[in-house]
Write a structure and sequence with these properties.
- The complex is a heterodimer of chains A (about 1000) and B (about 230).
- Chain A has about 1000 residues and is an alpha/beta fold.
- In chain A, α11 (about 350-360) crosses α12 and α21 (about 740-750) runs antiparallel to α22 (about 760-770).
- In chain B, the strands form five sheets. Chain B has a three-stranded mixed sheet with strand order 10-1-11.
- Chain B is elongated and about 90 Å long.
- Chain B has one domain (about 5-200): Alpha-Beta Plaits, CATH 3.30.70.
- In chain B, about 20% of the residues lie in helices and about 20% in strands.
- With about 230 residues, chain B is an alpha+beta fold.
- Chain B has helices at about 15-25, 80-85, 110-115, 135-140, 150-155, 175-180, 215-225, and strands at about 5-10, 35, 45, 50-55, 65-70, 90, 100, 120-125, 130, 160-165, 195-200.
- The chains are: A alpha/beta (about 1000), B alpha+beta (about 230).
- At the A-B interface, β2, β5, α1, α6 and α7 of A face α1, β2, β3, β5 and α4 of B.
Chain lengths: ~1000, ~230
């Protein structure tokens, strides 16, 4: 093997061996490194950016960061191409005088002109009728600021994108356990032995999920994936369950059936931490039915087995009956919550045999998974030896863990039965006692919160005044709805109306339709921040584009003024009257705050900042800075000193000095005048610098006795109150039975002492779907779609390497996928005469599209699916007109209607979950058939190419990115002459 | 020294983090630039040293999806080196890394035809062949923190499906991973003795099922048999 050695010098290398001397490839002296937080998706990983010659040499994961611990995904690694994207907006612009809206014809204006124009318009609205401003934000990572801004403006018409993203996931958890998945909780990756992934293609949460799967596999744990499609994470699952879309609640509740039937549940957990023993009034069709029996002080009652009498259900040391029917002192019949559960879930409806018919999963597989879950939970339970005290004062010497964990996301929540499906998954966890225990599903601080978090949605609009509370909140009874005396919606998106009572994240997907219809009223100005509402973030895209241009008879636009703020030339920018250009993520000040969408880990309270890495080379400003500027100009109380002067110089100044309540600000680290306090304390003028010093994040590690059972953990509850996470240190009781939902149900049945819906449609929806314990029901669109005409389910998934529409502008990422296909099961395709890579028509109740098909094995037989948001409008996103994204790429959105197709609903009703208003993207039913021979190329529908924006740079046919002239490595002559190491 | 990679196919979720990290590091590294063609136009393509292929095995519903990252295997009997007419392609004697000397490469493509792994990438702008260098410009750089002296693909991999090290050292990450999980060469029958190894997808984890015993809850519900638990 060895050859003669050249005369080049040798030295010890990193491996302790001799190696030839290498040139100095990297000139570290001309490089600098800065930390910030990634924004290539919503994971918000820590990154370390190396700069060289004022360009980005390299972006890597920050090894000490709590979220990603040094790793980084494809998107994060492609940040350079985002930073140099030709689609970056360059200056404020207004629609060219005389040009029609939607033609992408703009003239550049100065920032002064843009801000003056906006201030004047907003001032007028605020002084007359603040709700005439509708402000909706998309991939907004600082809703604490945008929400505060809307509240201070005084409009109820604010929401972020949660309503069309995953509000079902969030709401189901917050109305059940006090926390949920993703930003609210994580599997205990360090200890879990059995992991079920429900409806997660390849995203949410990107890096943490991958890191977790590695840990699980290293431990030999089992990974079960429930998803109609086997790509991404499902590929490495030990067991793939190709379920029919929209039937997950049935599967979860059938697992519950098997557990209950065999008495495989955690009796102690149910008694101590949930309301399973509460007594429910059992007087069907009468007022008060289904509510808890309460004493005169309003305390729910239980039946004490030893005392044999009614007792306060929340008193420590009681011994409540979990099962049974009892009577109140006045003879009112009662039964326990758990009795109601057994009656429903032990019924024939939820047997594996019946579930199998609905889910397409065999009864044997359902039975097997349930018994495996029980085995791991109860026979392989684990113990963490730590002394802790529960809320009753009882001391424990260890935490007992049931090492089963779950994660659920959009595949569950984007159905109109998703809220109940997600609750069903929580039920499964609760029965197994695997909630916030070692190896189970852990909360991430500031969660858990009390069920439901004690914030009510703002509804009273007063000219010139802020709203009395945040525009979004958590209704717990019909009195909390945002409706007028007649029962009509107060919000433009009809959130918190009878149509979507618990719409905690609003219904952004209805904002355009409703505003154009003037239903419930007309608005003046609509602001979209970072939301592609004229393309992939809307249902019924073609109609929505027409809507945005719709005019009244007098020739005025029905949405009189449309402001779009974005960093990039999206399809929606083309419809703006005023374009406010944002910076890229590497050019901005930002916070990732625990007041908003936290990045905490289960056992650490975390937040972080974005600090600018590069100066913008365009005339752009970070949107948050613009919001602070507008708030100051409009003299919002929270942004104005008592003497009338502006309080905050800019966003950074705001971040450091704003206090939500005394001692609580956007950042939790290094508070107090000298940075001596964590979590709570006075503003610290040097706080920003401390974050920079600490690689742009803050991590407060929980004490060992605070780590588990936090809803019932006395010391943690006190800590959470002290830290401002929760208003009280009372125990957080898991609400298996939701009396809150029951109140809405009673309102629907006309049995509620309070607001009740007048429309028959609303009465039906409330009485039918607001079940206090979860049930499976057929998704709404399926109920009213003729299944013989539209026999297939159609869903979208997100690839791991792209974030919504953002990454087609990315020269590296689009090489991985420049256009999408419609995927379907191979046997099914062949049965229908559909050939691989041929073009097909896909039709729904709403419209049809022509797309190219790809046949595959790993796809449930009745399901079609595609990647989300890869199709683009010609001329947008810095792409040329022949880019694959517009010639072959397509959107499924054209097939999805924002209203239900049902004829029997009277007036149009949103295609959303009837409880939360979550957009039911995945309820779509379609038909598919081959396109004709002369149709075998090109997508339908097609749109005219958008005009180039002023100042758009010419893109070249060849891109050669680098930060320096490469230092090459040469082969020595002697090595060539001796033919290297290959002479034997 | 035999430097190389181990790729764990049981953990690879096909996320492409490694492919893009490679592109990012190397475009400003010793082989840079890694040219992209029609970056914003039709059929974009470019020089990538590491590409993820996706396969399916078996039939629905028992099918399995496999994500398969492929880059230079740094073969011990590298055909690409043997066929190179100019001596531009070589295997470093000290660590086994197969490299191309850009000064001597004339872009004839022989090596690309010889390589059965598709690991060679012609940069048409420069007219030279490029390929995975195992980040030779990172792994020996003593100005980098020790734990970062690894190929970019290995550092970034979110599922830790990639290992780097010296196969001659029995205590290296790669030797340990390979011996523990019976590492496989790709196409050993071709005789090029690839250094990189792959770990096959593991057998399904089998979990015991909880025993079922009578009497069950259905009867207890009927009789309202409670268990006393103190709150």
């Amino acid at each position: 093997m060895a050859t003669k050695q050249d005369k080049i010098s040798f030295k010890k290398d990193a491996f302790g061996k001799n190696a030839s001397k290498l040139p100095e490839f990297e000139n570290h002296k001309q490089q600098t490194q800065k930390n910030t937080t990634c924004y290539m998706c919503a994971c918000r990983c820590g990154i370390k950016v190396t700069l060289e010659n004022n360009k980005i040499r390299y972006i890597q994961g920050e090894p000490t960061h709590p979220v990603n611990k040094g790793v980084l995904c494809a998107k994060g690694n492609a940040g350079i191409m985002k930073q140099i994207s030709p689609a970056r907006l360059r200056q404020p612009m207004m629609r060219k005088p005389g040009a029609e809206r939607g033609t992408s014809e703009f003239v550049p204006i100065s920032w002064d002109e843009a801000l003056d124009m906006l201030t004047e318009r907003l001032q007028k609205i605020r002084e007359t009728d603040p709700k005439k401003l509708a402000f909706f934000t998309g991939r907004d990572q600082m809703q604490a600021l945008t929400g505060l801004w809307a509240q201070q403006f005084g409009t109820i018409n604010w929401a972020a994108h949660g309503g069309f993203c995953s509000v079902n996931m969030a709401a189901a958890g917050l109305y059940t356990t006090g926390f949920s998945f993703w930003e609210f909780g994580d599997p205990d990756w360090d200890k879990t032995k059995y992991f079920m992934l429900w409806g997660v293609a390849e995203d949410h949460a990107s890096n943490p999920m991958k890191m977790g799967i590695n840990k699980l596999k290293e431990r030999g744990g089992k990974f079960v994936a429930i998803n109609p499609v086997r790509t991404g994470y499902q590929a490495v699952a030990d067991e793939w369950v190709p379920i029919k879309p929209g039937t997950d609640a049935m599967l979860a509740l059938s697992l519950v059936h098997v557990l209950l039937k065999n008495e495989l549940f955690d009796w102690e957990f149910l008694v101590r931490y949930t309301n399973a023993h509460y007594l429910v009034v059992d007087t069907p069709r009468k007022k008060g039915d289904g509510l808890f029996l309460r004493n005169n002080e309003g305390v729910p009652q239980s039946w004490d087995l030893e005392k044999e009498c009614l007792v306060n259900a929340t008193d420590p040391k009681i011994k409540p009956a979990l099962l049974g029917k009892y009577k109140a002192a006045d003879g009112t019949p009662l039964k326990t919550v758990f009795t109601i559960m057994t009656e429903r879930y032990l019924s024939d409806e939820y047997t594996p045999e019946n579930a199998s018919k609905i889910c397409g999963v065999s009864a044997e597989q359902i039975e097997k998974i349930a018994l495996e879950l029980a085995h791991v939970a109860f026979k392989e339970s684990i113990e963490v030896e730590t002394e802790w005290t529960d809320w009753t004062g009882r001391k424990h010497d260890k935490f007992i863990g049931r090492p089963v964990s779950m994660h659920a996301m959009r595949g569950i929540s984007a159905h109109s039965n998703g809220f109940q499906a997600c609750r069903a998954i929580h039920f499964l966890q609760v029965l197994l006692g695997s909630v916030d225990c070692p190896g189970g599903h852990l909360a991430k601080p500031p969660y858990p919160k009390h069920v439901a978090p004690p914030i009510k949605p703002g509804k009273k609009v007063v000219p010139g005044q802020p709203l009395e509370s945040f525009p979004l909140g958590f209704p717990t009874e019909p009195e909390d709805l945002a409706i007028d005396d007649e029962g009509n919606p107060l919000r433009i998106d009809k959130a918190y109306s009878w149509e979507a009572p618990i719409a905690n994240h609003g219904l952004m997907h209805m904002a355009i339709t409703n505003a154009v219809a003037g239903d419930p009223y007309e608005i003046d100005t609509m602001i979209f921040f970072m939301a592609n509402m004229a393309w992939n973030s809307t249902m019924n895209t073609t109609k929505m584009r027409e809507n945005l241009c719709a005019k009244n008879e007098d020739g005025e636009y029905k949405i009189p003024f449309l402001v779009v703020c974005d960093a990039f030339d999206s399809e929606t920018v083309g419809y703006a009257d005023l374009v406010i250009p944002d910076t890229t993520y590497l050019e901005r000040y930002d916070t990732i705050s625990i007041l908003d969408r936290p990045i905490s880990e289960p056992h650490a309270v975390c937040d972080s900042i974005r600090a600018p890495i590069l100066e913008p080379d365009r005339d752009v400003r970070p949107w948050q800075t613009v919001l602070v500027e507008l708030a100051s100009r409009l003299k919002f109380p929270a942004f104005t000193s008592d003497n009338g002067e502006r309080k905050f110089k800019d966003y950074k100044d705001f971040i450091i000095n704003y206090e939500k309540s005394p001692g609580v600000g956007f950042l939790a680290g290094w508070r107090g005048e000298n940075g001596e306090n964590s979590l709570k304390g006075k503003p610290n003028p040097k706080q920003w610098e401390k974050y920079i010093e600490n690689k742009c994040f803050f991590e407060y590690k929980l004490a060992d006795n605070h780590k588990y059972f936090r809803g019932a953990n006395k010391d943690y509850l006190e800590f959470a109150k002290k830290s401002g996470f929760n208003a009280s240190s009372e125990p957080i009781i898991i609400e298996l039975y939701s009396e809150k939902l029951q109140k809405f149900k009673l309102a629907g049945m006309g049995l509620y002492d309070g607001p009740q819906p007048k429309k028959e449609r609303d009465q039906f929806r409330l009485s039918r779907f607001f079940d206090p314990i979860p049930e499976y029901y057929i998704p709404l669109e399926h109920r009213c779609t003729f299944s013989k005409a539209f026999p297939f389910y159609a869903i979208t998934q997100r690839p791991m390497f792209m974030y919504h529409s953002w990454d087609s502008q990315n020269a590296w990422l689009r090489q991985l996928q420049a256009h999408n296909y419609m995927h379907m099961n191979k046997d099914k395709g062949e049965e229908l005469g559909i050939k691989d890579l041929s073009w097909v028509w896909v039709e729904s109740n709403t419209g049809k599209i022509k797309v190219q098909v790809k046949l595959m094995e790993g796809c449930q037989s009745d399901t079609l699916w595609t990647w989300n948001a890869i199709g683009k409008q010609k001329g947008k996103w810095g792409l040329s007109d022949d880019a694959n994204e517009s010639t072959k790429g397509f959107l499924m959105n054209h097939l999805i209607n924002e209203h239900l197709p049902c004829a029997d609903t009277g007036s149009p009703v949103t295609n959303s979950d009837p409880i939360t208003g979550q957009a039911a993207w995945y309820d779509l039913k379609v038909n598919v058939y081959p396109a004709a021979d002369d149709e075998q190329f090109g997508v339908y529908p097609n749109f005219e190419a958008a005009k180039n924006l002023p100042g758009r740079p010419e893109t070249k046919d060849v891109l050669r990115y680098n930060t320096k002239k490469p230092v090459r490595l040469s082969r020595s002559l002697i090595d060539i002459l001796t033919k290297g190491g290959f002479e034997k | 020294m035999r430097l190389g990679l181990v790729v764990d196919l049981d953990k690879c979720v096909g996320c492409n983090a490694c492919a893009i990290a490679c592109k990012q590091w190397n475009t400003s590294g010793t082989s840079g630039s890694l040219t992209d063609y029609r970056p914003y136009g039709a059929d974009p393509s470019g020089v990538f040293f590491n590409r993820i292929r996706h396969y399916e095995t078996g039939n629905y519903p028992d099918s399995k999806t496999v994500h398969f990252p492929m880059s230079c295997m740094h073969c011990e009997e590298a055909a690409c080196v043997t066929v190179c007419p100019t001596g531009a392609s070589y295997k470093r004697e000290e660590d086994g890394i197969v490299l191309v000397d850009p000064e001597k490469c004339m872009g004839c493509n022989y090596c690309a035809w010889a390589c059965p792994y598709g690991a060679r990438e012609l940069d048409r702008e420069e007219g030279i062949m490029k390929k995975c260098t195992l980040c030779v410009d990172r792994i020996y750089d003593e100005n980098l923190p020790k734990e970062e002296r690894k190929p970019a693909c290995v550092m970034t991999c979110p599922t830790t499906a990639r290992y780097f090290g010296d196969f001659d050292d029995p205590n290296s990450d790669v030797s340990i991973a390979s011996s523990k999980r019976d590492g496989q060469e790709l196409f050993p029958e071709l005789g090029y003795k690839p250094v990189n190894q792959y770990l096959s997808p593991r057998k399904k984890v089998e979990i015991k099922q909880h025993e079922i015993s009578e009497p069950d809850l259905v009867r207890k519900v009927k009789d309202w048999v409670n268990k006393v638990v103190e709150l």
